[in-house]
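Usage

Read records sequentially. Each one opens with the input sequence:
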Amino acid sequence: MDEAYELFWQFKYLEAEAIFQKLIVNTADLRASRSAYWYLGLCQLFQGQSANAQASWLSSLNKDISIDELFRFLRNIASEFGHKFNRYGNSILILEALQNIAPQDISLISNLDVLRDLARFYRAAFRFNEALNAAKSYAQTATDLPDKIFANYLLLHALLSGGSQWEEILGVADQQSALIRSLVAENPQNLSRKEANRLFGCAFHFPYIEDCPRINRTLQNELVKIAHDNLGYHQPPAPIQKEKRPLRIGYIAHCFGKHSVGWLSRWIFKHHDHDQFQIYTYSFLDKPNSLDSVKSWIAGYSDKFYRLGYDSAEIAEIIRQDQIDILVDLDSITSDVCCEVMTMKPAPIQVTWLGLDASGLPAIDYFIADPYVLPEDAQEYYAEKIWRLPDTYVAVDGFEVLFPTLQRDRLDIPADAIIYFSSQGGCKRYPDTVRLQMQILKAVPNSYFLIKGDADQEEIQIFFRQIAEQTGVSSDRLRFLPIAATEAEHRANLDIADVVLDTYPYNGATTTMETLWMCIPMVTRVGEQFAARNSYTMMMNAGITEGIAWNDQEYIDWGIRLGTDENLRKQVFWKLKESRKTSPLWNAKQFTREMESAYKQMWQIHNQ
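and closes with the structure output:
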């Protein structure tokens, strides 16, 4: 049996199938052979034999083995393929097969589970329409309030990922807000662990839709408090270490590697003072063979680097055993695993930094910010204590850049044309901001707009062309680019742009840093929420104010001015070039010292 399992997880389905067939023939006890039947069916499914697969699965059922047991097993395997191996196609095949197995005998809960998983895995596989249909089916079937909220979250996720159906997006967002308010009013005390964990990220999409942090952050805080309270972890606080030793700093995330968090956080690992700080890194949801160059870098600069699964209790216990003094969460609400770990309070001081806005979890003590990225009155609606660093909340020493692969003549753009550029996902393509971008394009003769980012490519092109035509801009001036093969190639290709146009109400972050590193002028619209002030703080810390707009008209004016004034573009270019020598944004060593100073002060406050 062990040999068959090993072959299966090496994706050698034909060889594994032969062994499972022999095991079934040689085992009289049906319950004992059920695992062989179930894996046999999977081997057949992945070889395109769906009818045989269903026959194998149904052959295992009797009065002792229910169809719901089979459902739970197959859903767990689908989750393994998706979360552990990024084989979303395998996950989808299993879940689609489940929908065809005696549906009349399946419990409502099992059907909801399949629809929920399909919505997630279709989205992960960039199958946007199917993700949307699965999410809608789930939303229509869900009856309990927590389920409805999670269904709406998946529906918003699918809609925003496509990037074009904004009328529906706004309606679903209003519904989501109303559902969350209903849950807050009910304040349930008996949610299951799964229900509580699913709530953590259900207010995730509001910053993409409106810049209203006082309302939305309050709602986020109330929602995660319900999840936190229902999980009900009452473990004793981690002991304060009396011995004289370096402070132990733990960093936890699921996105160390070639991800925005990995690219930006890697520098702090390089510059940490290991005489004063011991650095422990907890990388979870880790995939086999996923130790890419960025993750290897981070592992190499960590005193201890863990590659973990998704068992929250196990992760929290490892952190507790390591006697971490300050645990730094880089995921916020992007991961329910991380939220649950932080809820368990495995370290005496817990901090959120970098990965997203603050989570609002009662178990988090501090949120790292700077003088610009949050308004002065932000503490009024943050559950965590805002810890403002003196200059910037993030810094890098630079980015790797390859040779560009974009050329004007291949894009049918004249050599003397002005090129505006925007590289963001569909979720950031708020229609009002796209209209402002089209007004800029209309006002600048001989200008073109290059558009790139994850989205439903057919839908996003229709979306942009419709707004262009409504504004009086020929769609011939739009160019839609494929995703670059590597991050280094993407950065090199930025050089084709004369001006980068930022998104609002959700700005770029890593994309802004890359733009500034390549010394390209950009226009950003500053708002009130964290997501609407990232580019602002980065531009201020790179030493430029040209392109910072405080309202829609200023956004248009800066876009026109930078497009028509070549001397101004050159001034911004040289300012950014010189900023590499002196600006806080490009001094990761100084930034690390400031973070370390913050850690020391937090520790002193804790021990008073």
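Summary fields computed downstream for this record:
- The longest strand covers residues 247-253.
- The longest helix spans residues 166-186.
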